[in-house]
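Re: [ENG-882] Designed sequences occasionally contain unexpected residues at chain ends

Forwarding the minimal case from QA. Structure tokens:
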């Protein structure tokens, strides 16, 4: 018999209580066969929220709740919270072959693959379920379970309401999305630590994009295991994170082991962890990481979810990703708040900030849920990702018309944008800086207004390139928005030419 006094009940924060009440009300008013998706950033307390939802649902509906996860650690964590709330629950792990005692429990927590195997053998493996809660609902492996349950409610929870498979959008399974507190709000109200982000330009030539839409492990290992990338990693760590507990995310085992050898050679406290490690070894390494103040843990994949170590002070993205979900998961590992930890560091060595924007920036999750294709297309395409890495060179015809081509070629919209943000200015001011640069070039190379307007026509390709880069920086790259930017930019530049360049 479990001693429930050993489990401590977590009191809900005000925003968490409001969410619980809102979701219970929504499920009650909509009735059966209504599926609801809830978004909340990593660190916002999704487990404590859906555990309290389960408790209230059981008390109100007198039906059982099934909670699905894809990591055993999440099953155990959820079970402990349910026990603390007074909910009799059972973890369905690989050792549980039957549920002859299921009448004794109000809730069940299971890994999706384990439960799917049991349901294939027996459709009635779990009975009288009224609500299925899906943790990390963006993961499509959960869909296979839904066919076994009828006349129920499904509640999905995720930090990023984007399907892991873009051909299977979440809106196909969920009727409505409720968006929780934003990252910025959670930071401002003291629930999350803020991120101080350090970006380093890296050459990603050589990366290849796989069938899942992200960069392949093999090409990432090749790029990130080379000498220059290793040196850049070490330089970034020593510049920002020496003496701080640091978690390094890599794409593949080869590059993670290379990181381990590099840090070991330089006498830093470092361990490597990947999915091939035994449960015992993994537990020992994570305990070492917990108790070692200046520990460096280099890992592959497995610590993006189901891992909670609030003492992490620095996150290093030693990889590039095209997955917004993974980007948020990795950075979120450092966002846990402590009394002596209001801020943590993010070191980006994959041009990820340029691809997605800063972690704290606002994202319209309703747009992502309702129009996932459009939302994803607004991010960098495969072609753009590669072109963005290339050095820029103006055309020969334009080069012949201006005295100093470097004024155009050395202008980086991305650098100007990031400088504006770091100085507390609005990102839009980067467009104004660009416009000033273009006007200076026009004025320097034109005798009068007419020359200036002709040169403006020659600059259209460069103007479009810069504005495309700006829309990538703000992750808002729709054609309509880009066209509006170009029209506004050209109108303002034309007006300035007419006003400031003498036509005589």
């Amino acid at each position: 018999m479990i001693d429930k006094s050993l489990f401590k009940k977590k009191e809900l924060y005000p925003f968490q209580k409001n969410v619980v009440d809102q979701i219970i009300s929504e499920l009650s008013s909509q009735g059966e066969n209504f599926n609801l998706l809830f978004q909340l950033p990593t660190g916002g307390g999704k487990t404590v929220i859906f555990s309290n939802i389960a408790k209230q649902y059981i008390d109100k509906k007198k039906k059982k709740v099934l909670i699905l996860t894809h990591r055993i650690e999440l099953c155990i964590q959820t079970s402990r919270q349910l026990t603390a709330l007074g909910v009799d629950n059972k973890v369905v792990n690989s050792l549980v072959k039957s549920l002859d005692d299921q009448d004794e429990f109000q809730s069940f927590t299971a890994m999706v693959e384990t439960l799917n195997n049991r349901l294939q053998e027996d459709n009635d493996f779990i009975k009288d379920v009224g609500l299925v809660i899906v943790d990390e609902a963006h993961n499509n492996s959960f869909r296979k379970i839904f066919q076994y349950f009828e006349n129920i409610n499904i509640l999905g929870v995720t930090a990023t309401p984007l399907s892991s498979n873009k051909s299977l959008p979440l809106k196909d399974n969920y009727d409505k999305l409720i968006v929780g507190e934003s990252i910025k709000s959670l930071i401002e109200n003291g629930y999350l630590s803020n991120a101080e982000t350090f970006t380093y330009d890296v050459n990603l030539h050589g990366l290849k994009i796989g069938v899942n839409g992200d960069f392949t492990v093999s090409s990432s290992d090749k790029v990130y295991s080379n000498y220059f990338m290793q040196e850049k990693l070490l330089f970034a760590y020593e510049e920002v994170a020496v003496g701080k507990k640091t978690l390094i995310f890599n794409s593949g085992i080869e590059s993670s082991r290379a990181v381990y050898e590099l840090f070991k050679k330089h006498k830093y406290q470092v361990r490597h962890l990947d999915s091939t490690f035994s449960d015992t070894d993994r537990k020992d390494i994570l305990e070492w990481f917990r108790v070692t103040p200046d520990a460096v843990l280099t890992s592959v994949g497995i610590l993006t979810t189901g891992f909670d170590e609030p003492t992490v002070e620095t996150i290093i993205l030693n990889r590039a990703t095209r997955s917004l979900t993974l980007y948020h998961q990795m950075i979120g590992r450092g966002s846990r708040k402590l009394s002596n930890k209001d801020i943590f560091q993010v070191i980006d060595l994959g041009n990820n900030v340029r691809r997605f924007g800063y972690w704290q920036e606002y994202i319209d999750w309703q747009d992502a849920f309702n129009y996932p294709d459009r939302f994803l297309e607004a991010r960098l395409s495969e072609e753009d990702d590669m072109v963005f890495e290339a050095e820029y060179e103006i055309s020969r015809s334009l080069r012949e018309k201006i005295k100093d081509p470097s004024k155009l070629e050395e202008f980086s919209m991305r650098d100007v944008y990031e400088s504006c943000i770091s100085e507390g200015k609005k990102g839009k001011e980067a467009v104004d800086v660009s416009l000033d640069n273009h006007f200076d070039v026009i004025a320097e190379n034109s005798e009068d207004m007419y020359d200036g307007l002709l040169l403006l026509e020659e600059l259209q390709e460069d103007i479009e390139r810069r504005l495309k880069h700006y829309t990538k920086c703000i992750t808002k790259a729709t054609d309509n928005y880009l066209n509006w930017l170009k029209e506004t930019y050209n109108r303002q530049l034309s007006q300035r030419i007419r006003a400031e360049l003498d036509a005589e």
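QA comment: On inspection the terminal residues look reasonable. Residues 391-500 form one domain. Proposing we downgrade this to a documentation issue.
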